[in-house]
Structure formats: structure tokens, C-alpha cells
Write a structure and sequence with these properties.
By secondary structure, the chain is of the alpha+beta class. It is built from 18 helices and 23 strands. The longest helix is centred in the N-terminal third of the chain and has 27 residues. The chain binds glycyl-adenosine-5'-phosphate.
């Protein structure tokens, strides 16, 4: 199946099974804004807890924070967001569609890279063990030509970004003959800058309200509370502050489901270190964060680091962790060495000292910061796209039929187990209810008695429930039930009193956390 079709199916599946709904749908929706349904909110909370625990629970020197969305407008001047939080936009004159000019070029570069990789994979299959990739890259005319093209465009692109040369960005689009992906037209406007922050009024209009911004990142709430946390918690450097929360960006394009939203959630951690130590900690967090993803059991080939072509105004090192979504490899988390930029700027703009006093060396200094910043919604999308699978499964008569299954890691799955009486009589529903009464304190359980057992299994597969407990007539006699595993569809017979222990072992968040500690 083409990857675009997978993406469309995922969107439809998310809606049909209560994961994600378009916002304000009965009013025809609101661009790039989504609501999380009954299962979506559970998965989202589980991911958030996993992230929070991996930071705050596992590290003695990381504490949490929940700062307000509304912040003093000067914060965004100090952070550089008022002047520099812009995207270059370009319109297609024929289709009237708007695009991010940088993304058009980056996607073009990715296509060239994909062509090169395709040639390499083909050749490695052809030559087997004796294949020498370096030699192949240096000698194959097609690969050499594409690599030269890639390098030339990338150099021009990075230079244009660094000098903020919007005319050159447009020229690259024209020279590469990049067409509107929807209409195929190459009739482009000039490139303009567009600030992504939402502005709103603070206070009532009659009081001559001031303009403020909805925060576009949670990080600044951590910076402006640096001393509050450090002093009240008597934190010693190095230490970190973690925060999750809603952020808002007026994104130019709104065509990628929850990948690019205008209201979304971030999970950020700022790690305050001694100046000069930042690259050591940057490397440390790079590895730690990559391991966090691998603990989900995601295929390593679907994850990669991507070094930034152009460093943000605040960073001296930056890397993205990218996941291979059905729309290609895309950023899911950024790890940035932000130097002392933010604290120094807030010191300057607020006139208040934001320094750390080292009691051992008797020195005061503005700490440097290493940041890990991950999108909760993108992590959600990663888990859905990684877990979505269309398969054939035998029905009660042994014939193969289609099943759609969401293979979500059990510790993160919204519903951990469904308890299903085989029939709606003979005391089976009563036993099922009794089991739920006992297990609901530990696990999110669901009771289902409607439809055939096969259809109920299909429904639970589609929701991503990892375990189905079936109560049948044997249960009445010997107090055993079957436990059916979502991914393998195998079944085991177990004692009811063992259920809690068996399930705890399987869905415990501790297992994921142990892998990354
Ligand atoms: N404090 C640094 C910062 O905000 P960022 O790369 O702009 O860095 C961090 O954002 C993460 O937030 C991204 O890696 C991505 O996962 C998520 N993110 C950014 N823009 C998003 C959007 N429009 N919709 C959903 N997630 C987004």
C-alpha cells in the first residue's frame, strides 16, 4: 500500500475508533486543530506519564514545573521570538495555495537523497557481501550526479537561510523547477516572512488592553522560573526542569493531520550546566532520548538523527530525532545546546540577575542549557503509524478475514484489557463483572458482551487493546479464563486469581522505564 494511503487510512481509523476528531467538526472544522477522543486522551496521558517519569522519576536532579500559558510580552522580545520566530511563506498564484518555502526545498532535497539511497540498496542487493558503499558512491555516475546536485542546492539553501535572503530562496525554488504539489503549477509569488505567534488581548477592552502572545514553546516558562526553582529546591548544577503543556503556533500549512497543528502539546526539559560542559551533556541527552524511543520497540531503521543545516539563533549544537512517518522521515524531537542565550537575554530585558552561585568555587555564572523538546502529538502519531497494521486473521469458521490492529505498546495502550463473556447467559456476564470489579483499580478495563466473540476481538484489535479475557463455560467449573494476545492472537488458559499478576507484569510502565535507566 502506498504510504499516502496508509496516512489517509490512519486518519480515518483515528476518527472511527475515538482517537482523534477534527475540531469543531459540525461547523466544518478548524484548520490544523484537533480534539482527542475517548481513547486518544488515554494514549496521550500515558505517553505524557512515560515521558514525565523518564525525566522526573528517574533523575534525582530533574524536577517538574507547570508555568502559565500567558506570560509577560517582554519575554518573547527577550527570547527573540518577536523578531525571529518566522517562517518563509510562498503562494502559488494559480492554485492560491500557501506553502512554507523552506519545506518545499527540503522536500526536494529529500527526494534526491531518496533516489541515491534507492540506487545504493539496489546495488547492495546485487553485489551482496562484497558491496563497498563508499566506492559505489564515488564511482556510480547516477549517484555522483545526484550527490553533486544535492550538495549545490543544499549549499545555496543554507547560505540563503543564514543571510535571510528571501529572494535567493525563491530563486532556488524556480531553479529546481519545484512545482505546487497539488496543482503542478510553477507560478510562484515572492517569499515573505510570517511570524507564527498568536496575539491576543490581555485584560478587558475598557481598561485599554495590552497585546500578549499565546506561548509558542513551554521552554521560556522554565527559563523565567530558573531562580525560583533553583533556590526553593536548593538545586545544584547540573540540574533539569521538566514541563509539559499546550503551545500555539499559527502554522502556515495545515495539511498534515496532527503532525503540524496550531495548538499542540510539548514536553520539554531544560538542563542547566556549567559553561563549557554543555557539549558533554548534549551528547548525553542525545543518546538518552534516542533510547527512550527505542524502548517503545520501534524498528531502529525508522529512527534517525538529523543534524541541523542552520542553527537556531540560540544554539551552538542541535540535532533532531526523526521518525519515518507515512509522510516520510520527519522531526519528532529536537535536542539543542542553547548556550546561555535565554538566561542572559532575560537578565538583560528584566534587569534581574539570573545567576547561579557555586558554593564550592565561590563563583557566580549564568548557566548554559541543554534542551530536549519533544512534541506529544507527534509522538502520538508515531505510535499510531508504527502500530497500524492490516492483516488476515482466521474467523470462527477458520476462514481468513481482514483485521486492522493497532499494535500499541501494552504499557501505553488506552485500554489494557477487555473482559468478554462468551455468551450473555449462564452466569458468564456476572463472572466478567466480578473480574472487572477487582482489576479496574489497576488497569483500564472494558466490558463487552454484544456481538460474536470474533467481532468483539476485531473491535478490540482496532482500538489496540493488548489483552482480551474471555469467560466461557469452563470458567464456571474451574475458575479459569482465556487470555488472548492482540499481536499473536494466541490464547492461554489461566486461573482468574493469577490475572492481576500476569497483567501487571505485561503492562507495567516500569518495564519501559527500566530499559532506559
Ligand atoms: N523549545 C524548542 C522548540 O520549541 P521546536 O523544534 O520548535 O523547538 C519542538 O519544537 C517539538 O515540538 C518538535 O520537535 C515537534 O515534535 C513539536 N512541534 C513543533 N511544531 C509543531 C506543530 N506545529 N504541531 C505539532 N508538533 C509540533
Amino acid at each position: 500500500m502506498a504510504q499516502e494511503d496508509v496516512f489517509k487510512k490512519l486518519i480515518a481509523h483515528s476518527k472511527e475508533y475515538g482517537y482523534i476528531f477534527p475540531s469543531s467538526e459540525i461547523y466544518d472544522g478548524l484548520g490544523a486543530v484537533y480534539d482527542y477522543g475517548q481513547y486518544g486522551v488515554e494514549l496521550k496521558n500515558n505517553i505524557k506519564n512515560y515521558w514525565w517519569d523518564s525525566m522526573v522519576l528517574l533523575h534525582e536532579n530533574i524536577v517538574g514545573l507547570d508555568s502559565a500559558i500567558f506570560m509577560h510580552p517582554k519575554i518573547w522580545e527577550a527570547s527573540g521570538h518577536v523578531d525571529a520566530f518566522n517562517d518563509p511563506l510562498i503562494d502559488n498564484k494559480d492554485s492560491k495555495k500557501r506553502y512554507r518555502a523552506d519545506i518545499l526545498i527540503e522536500e526536494y532535497l529529500q527526494k534526491i537523497e531518496a533516489k541515491i539511497n534507492k540506487e545504493i540498496i539496489k546495488a547492495s542487493k546485487r553485489f551482496g557481501d562484497v558491496f563497498n558503499e563508499k566506492q559505489f558512491r564515488e564511482t556510480n555516475p547516477q549517484v555522483k550526479q545526484n550527490q553533486a546536485k544535492f550538495n549545490t542546492i543544499q549549499q545555496r539553501y543554507v547560505a540563503a537561510l543564514e543571510t535571510d535572503d528571501l529572494k535567493e530562496i525563491r530563486q532556488i525554488i524556480l531553479d529546481c523547477e519545484i512545482a505546487d504539489p497539488v496543482s503542478g503549477s510553477r507560478n510562484w509569488t515572492d517569499v515573505r516572512k510570517f511570524n507564527l505567534m498568536f496575539e491576543t488581548k490581555f485584560g478587558s477592552v475598557s481598561e485599554e488592553a495590552n497585546s500578549i502572545y499565546l506561548r509558542p514553546e513551554t521552554a521560556q516558562g522554565i527559563f523565567v522560573n530558573f531562580l525560583n526553582v533553583q533556590k526553593s529546591g536548593r538545586m545544584k548544577i547540573p540540574f533539569g526542569v521538566a514541563q509539559t503543556g499546550k503551545v500555539f503556533r499559527n502554522e502556515i500549512i495545515a495539511r498534515q493531520f496532527i503532525f503540524r497543528m496550531r495548538e499542540f502539546e510539548q514536553m520539554e526539559m531544560q538542563f542547566f550546566v556549567r559553561p563549557g560542559d554543555e557539549i558533554k551533556w548534549y551528547e548525553y541527552w542525545k543518546e538518552k532520548r534516542m533510547n527512550w524511543f527505542k524502548a517503545f520497540g520501534i524498528d531502529e531503521n525508522k529512527l534517525r538523527f538529523h543534524e541541523h543545516d542552520k542553527l537556531a539563533h540560540y544554539a551552538n549544537a542541535a540535532v533532531d530525532i526523526e521518525f519515518d512517518f507515512p509522510i516520510g522521515f520527519k522531526e519528532i524531537e529536537g535536542i539543542h545546546s542553547r548556550t546561555d542565550f535565554d538566561l542572559a537575554q532575560h537578565q538583560k530585558f528584566s534587569g534581574k540577575k539570573l545567576q547561579y552561585f557555586d558554593t564550592e568555587t565561590k563563583e557566580s555564572f549564568v548557566p548554559f542549557v541543554v534542551e530536549t523538546s519533544i512534541g506529544l502529538d507527534r509522538t502520538f502519531l508515531m505510535i499510531l503509524s508504527n502500530g497500524y497494521s492490516e492483516e488476515k486473521a482466521p474467523n470462527a469458521e477458520g476462514q481468513l478475514e481482514d483485521r486492522v490492529v493497532l499494535k500499541i505498546p501494552p504499557a501505553l495502550a488506552p485500554v489494557k484489557l477487555a473482559v468478554l463473556p462468551l455468551v450473555r447467559k449462564d452466569g458468564l456476564p456476572e463472572i466478567a463483572r466480578k473480574i472487572i470489579k477487582e482489576l479496574k483499580f489497576d488497569f483500564n478495563c472494558q466490558y463487552e458482551e454484544k456481538d460474536s466473540i470474533g467481532r468483539r476481538y476485531r473491535r478490540q484489535d482496532a482500538i489496540g487493546t493488548p489483552y482480551c479475557i474471555t469467560i466461557d463455560h469452563q470458567t464456571v467449573n474451574d475458575n479459569t479464563v482465556t487470555i488472548r494476545y492482540r499481536d499473536s492472537m494466541k490464547q492461554d488458559r489461566v486461573k482468574i486469581e493469577k490475572l492481576r499478576e500476569i497483567l501487571s507484569e505485561k503492562v507495567n510502565m516500569r518495564k519501559l522505564l527500566e530499559k532506559i535507566d
